[in-house]
Specification:
31% of the residues lie in helices and 23% in strands. The protein is an alpha/beta fold.
């Protein structure tokens, strides 16, 4: 049985910075209200020419450069997003094309929302452990800004989300102090409608292929979230998953050097850390400048922590996430 490790990271965020003050011009909200409820000060929204694919390409190239590898050194791609550039094919295949591979490699597209990075990491790790591949590119690239209700009616959700991409190179490791210990992932589909964007879908076309959209259905074309219910489940499920994977690998919580949580709400993360008895300084956050970037949030935040010198080689990292589905999980990594 082989082991895998996180070799490198890369990110891409849009050029356009959208502050809370900018949102005050679009809806009845305030910088104070947003910061108190989420910890967000600003986020990035795409501009002309920026797409799910273009951000994925730039994040991937950065991760490849940091790992000192070329496209043909990669054996497989795992790609995730909420909204792909095309309905089909998946963006993973487009990414394979744009990165300039001279060989064919598998490109797996996944849709596990905020937990997508951990789901993808578990796949990459399993492939490498089983000996199928030596090196996997894992990418999350997300665009929320084009699907948000930017009126006062949609403010509870629209102030939270940003656009961006994060990528990592996962590769075979022969080092005892640098490898992925394991991942615990779960789902609970009975609560799928508590956090959802239900339309448009293949169910919304009439017999002529035209999109059916009555005025009373308009709200279903924007994201819906039962905020209190999601909050309650997030602060329960993420610690459960972390304790599960710690128990599996006999790692005490106090021996974790840094927690990289999904960036949905700073209050959720603070409550989780407090409940686990982990000091806030042993975690890293980027929600204040990027907002919630769904699958991209963990690699974005990990990259930021590395750049800040907060994560170093040999550190034991905990990666935790919760999102729509419901899906959630935790990974332990010897970085």
């Amino acid at each position: 049985m082989y082991k895998s490790r996180l070799r490198s990271t890369g990110i891409c965020v849009p050029k356009k910075v959208v502050t809370n003050q900018d949102l005050e011009k679009l809806m009845d909200t305030s910088d104070e209200w947003i910061q108190q409820r989420s910890g967000i000060k600003e986020r990035r929204w795409i501009g002309e020419g920026e797409t799910t694919l273009s951000m994925a390409v730039e994040a991937s190239k950065q991760a490849m450069q940091n790992a000192e590898v070329q496209a043909d050194d990669i054996d497989a791609i795992v790609f995730g997003c909420l909204v792909s550039d095309y309905i089909f094919p998946g963006t993973g295949c487009l990414l394979q094309r744009e990165l300039g591979f001279s060989k064919t490699v598998p490109a797996l597209d996944i849709r596990n929302q905020c937990s997508g990075f951990l789901y993808g990491l578990s796949v990459a790790d399993a492939w490498i452990r089983a000996g199928f591949y030596k090196r996997v590119l894992l990418v999350g690239s997300e665009i929320h800004s084009t699907s948000l209700d930017k009126s006062t009616r949609g403010r509870d959700i629209s102030v939270l989300f940003g656009d961006g991409a994060g990528a990592v190179i996962v590769e075979r490791s022969d080092k005892d102090d640098q490898y992925i210990l394991g991942t615990a992932i779960h789902s609970e589909g009975q609560y799928a409608e508590k956090l959802t964007l239900p339309k448009p879908s293949s169910n919304d076309l009439d017999k002529y292929g035209a999109l059916i959209r009555g005025e009373d259905e308009a709200r279903n074309f924007y994201p819906f979230m039962d905020g209190k219910f999601v909050f309650k489940n997030a602060v329960r499920r993420m610690p459960e998953a972390l304790k599960e994977v710690c128990d599996q690998h006999s790692i005490a919580l106090e021996n974790i050097d840094c927690v990289i949580p999904h960036q949905a709400n700073i209050r959720i993360n603070q409550m989780i850390l407090e409940g686990l008895g982990i000091p806030l300084e042993k975690s890293h956050h980027t929600i204040h400048k990027y907002g919630n970037t769904t699958m991209a949030s963990i690699p974005l935040t990990l990259h930021d922590a590395i750049q800040a010198g907060k994560v170093k080689e040999g550190d034991t990292l905990a990666l935790i996430a919760f999102g729509a589905g419901f899906t959630w999980g935790a990974s332990l990594v010897k970085f």
